[in-house]
Design goal:
Length: about 450
């Protein structure tokens, strides 16, 4: 209710507010005036905008209705601008999770937002998030930290005696770093929750919910705190990046395996940049031995050699790209990815200093978006190259967080490729799927002793 004193015989005045002049109504020249108060608009006499006056003689007959439409459209546009946001690449977009580093973009044409969903939103779509507003389960978090400290060698790295120094680093130094950066702590607890879900299937739903909740929080905090690499946060960013990649492979995906690989390509495309930015400082800190170890040491006690015939198959893929019909841009993209895959194969066969598990996971190093689009479109040549990458990825298959990945992707590729092109993936299929089937059989079954 307006408690202002009643107006007594006011008249038009050249000193009236701009809003009243624009509407051609009398103004009481108060600050703010009664008309602006009644219509809930900012008054120019009280610091509001000085809008231009509209001359009735220059307005066409339909100007009133069109002005109303314009004001309505402008109001709706402003509302759209306030609700349309784009977030950084690895921001979560799940209900109840604040998105980091939001950027306002005016939605002038009222078109739907075109930004792609976060890879984690896609990969974790089948896992329930906690109800917004629920108190965090701090007791479970303590259990997860206890689980991590007691099972580090199974969660992060190898079990062989040669890896004792690396295990000690992950067990002692990573928690210290995590206490200094909460995004790293959330990533550590989330990854530990996934490992516990792996060994305790009866508690898997609860643990996976906790894992994804921790990762959502980690991504938000990382965007708030870890944008610029410094000597103080280099170790935390290094550990966080590593945990995020392992997490992405460990979580059961909610999309077909081929599409999940595309999301993983999008996720790790910035990992090399982060590692390059922090490499010098990390090499001077507690994680220096992790950087120094090569692939051969990382694979101690495991099958490190690739199946025979991969180099022969890779060389024939050049012929495949030239003989099969495809768009020139698609052929050029596949050619670049194939060249990088050949280089990765050479590095694995003849390990170079500094080659690590990340060298395999962070493929392709160049912009993965065009190649990912080819896979999304199910371009046969791109799927065939992906099948050969699965053979290299299969080297890591004995680790719990990636076990079965390459086999699932290959089965999806088999079901997608036309019959006429199945011969191009015979070698990857026999190298990965037949090996998996033989490993699943008992010795007696392999010898045909059981009926």
């Amino acid at each position: 209710m307006d408690h202002r004193a009643p107006r007594i015989g006011h008249k038009k005045s050249r000193k009236g507010c701009a809003q009243c002049k624009r509407r051609h109504v009398k103004c009481d020249e108060q600050s703010p005036c009664a008309n602006c108060v009644r219509h809930a608009v900012p008054c120019s006499l009280a610091g509001g905008p000085n809008v231009p006056r509209e001359d009735a003689k220059q307005r066409r007959p339909s100007a009133t209705s069109s002005s109303g439409i314009s004001r309505t459209a402008s109001h709706e546009t402003n509302q759209g601008a306030s609700s349309t946001r784009t977030t950084s690449f690895d921001a979560t977009e799940n209900e109840g999770v604040q998105t980091p580093q939001a950027i306002m973009i005016p939605n002038v044409q009222r078109s739907p937002p075109t930004q792609r969903r976060s890879p984690f939103t896609v990969l974790t779509g089948l896992i329930d998030r906690p109800v917004p507003g629920e108190d965090p389960n701090w007791m479970l978090d303590l259990q997860l930290m206890h689980h991590y400290l007691n099972h580090t060698k199974y969660i992060i790295t190898e079990t062989s005696a040669e890896m004792a120094q690396i295990v000690q680093i992950w067990q002692e130094e990573l928690p210290k770093v995590a206490f200094s950066a909460d995004y790293c702590m959330h990533a550590l607890l989330g990854f530990a929750a996934l490992h516990r879900a792996h060994i305790e299937p009866e508690m898997a739903p609860l643990l996976r919910t906790s894992a994804v909740d921790h990762l959502d929080k980690a991504l938000v905090r990382y965007r708030e705190c870890g944008a610029i690499t410094t000597a103080e946060n280099a170790s935390a960013k290094f550990a966080f990046t590593w945990l995020v990649v392992l997490f992405a492979y460990a979580v059961p995906p909610s999309v077909p395996p081929i599409d999940a690989m595309v999301e993983l390509f999008h996720l790790v495309k910035g990992v090399d940049t982060i590692l390059a930015e922090s490499w010098f400082w990390v090499s001077q800190g507690p994680f220096a031995p992790v950087l120094a170890r090569g692939l051969g040491e990382a694979m101690a006690g495991r099958r490190t050699s690739l199946p025979e015939g991969m180099d022969f198959g890779l060389n024939h893929l050049d012929y495949m790209l030239g003989s099969e019909p495809m768009l020139s841009a698609d052929r050029r993209c596949c050619g670049m990815i194939l060249a990088e895959l050949k280089q990765l194969y050479d590095n694995v066969v003849r390990p170079q200093p500094g080659l690590s598990v990340a060298s395999i996971l962070c493929f392709p190093k160049q912009d993965s978006a065009p190649f990912g689009q080819l896979i999304k479109r199910r371009v046969p040549q791109a799927l065939i190259i992906l099948a050969y990458y699965c053979v290299i990825l299969d080297i890591l298959d004995t680790r719990w967080w990636i076990s079965g990945w390459s086999a699932r992707v290959l089965r999806d590729i088999m079901a997608t490729l036309p019959e006429s092109l199945q011969n191009w993936i015979e070698w990857p299929v026999s190298s990965v799927l037949l090996k998996s089937e033989q490993a699943a059989e008992s010795p007696a079954e392999r010898l045909g002793l059981l009926v």
